[in-house]
């Protein structure tokens, strides 16, 4: 890794909330500053670059021209195809137009978060803007899906470092997620799993069983059908994750979780 050249990255933001970027910059191992300052050349990103406006767009164009076929395109956000793309425009151009242009010369695409992988909240029924994930628009490039709302920062950093170190995609599962982080369900590494297996469940958020730390399945936990690394890598430098904080997993790394999730229907 010390001897590899800095891989150019173009990072687009479309229909999103920017918390995927927020998560990424909090990666602690590897620490994100080491990646951004030493391992990659983050040539374009609306949130982290010093340039803005025409200067920023010129930097992106320069990268697309100079490193055609070499740069990695990261995409945060879904793309609205409704109303001819007018729901998300940047500098007068639609997200779809910008995506198609940036994807053409990319070596590979990383779809960050559930917005880019599945459409996320924008695609929740009735999906008024026709929010569309990246793989449904770009068909001729390798796409790595890194779902989650947001994905874990260390997972994002791990994917980038793998690409930089080995010069190829990480091993992916059948729907395009890195196996290293998405091969197991949250349920498989949950520290409350012994309670599940023993049939010990919290019935309400404030009963004695909840205080005992019993399984949250009856409170809507989606851990048994959610593939993510939360139980092992955890969040905030390995401090905790939703289940450890007392709430079930809402399946934020699975498609359609806004329509399927346990959002307190009583
Ligand atoms: Fe925000 Fe979630 Fe979309 Fe990431 S996946 S940009 S955290 S809404
Ligand atoms: Fe499985 Fe959720 Fe229970 Fe953990 S809390 S054991 S993930 S159902
Ligand atoms: Fe998301 Fe479930 Fe992890 S809600 S953060 S996949 S525990």
Task: Provide the fold topology.
Blueprint: E1 7-13, H1 19-24, H2 32-39, E2 40-45, H3 53-66, E3 72-76, E4 79-80, E5 89-90, E6 93-94, H4 95-104, E7 108-112, H5 113-118, E8 131-132, E9 143-146, H6 153-166, H7 179-182, H8 193-197, H9 208-211, H10 257-260
Parallel strand pairs: 1-2, 1-3, 3-7, 7-9
Antiparallel strand pairs: 4-8, 5-6
The structure holds iron/sulfur cluster (2 copies) and FE3-S4 cluster.
FE3-S4 cluster binds next to loops.
Please characterize this protein's 3D structure.
This protein is α/β, with parallel strands linked by helices and about 270 residues long. The chain is about 30% helix and about 15% strand. The strands form three sheets. Strands 2-1-3-7-9 form a five-stranded parallel beta sheet, with helices on both faces. Strands 4-8 form a two-stranded antiparallel ribbon. The protein has a two-stranded antiparallel ribbon with strand order 5-6. It has helices at about 20-25, 30-40, 55-65, 95-105, 115-120, 155-165, 180, 195, 210, 255-260; strands at about 5-15, 40-45, 70-75, 80, 90, 95, 110, 130, 145. It has two domains: about 5-180, 3-Layer(aba) Sandwich (Rossmann fold); about 185-260, Cytochrome-c3 hydrogenase, C-terminal domain (Cytochrome-c3 Hydrogenase, Chain A, domain 2), CATH 4.10.480.10. The chain contains ten helices and nine strands. The structure holds iron/sulfur cluster (SF4) (2 copies) and FE3-S4 cluster. One iron/sulfur cluster binds near residues 190, 193, 196, 215 and 249. One iron/sulfur cluster (SF4) binds near residues 17 and 114.
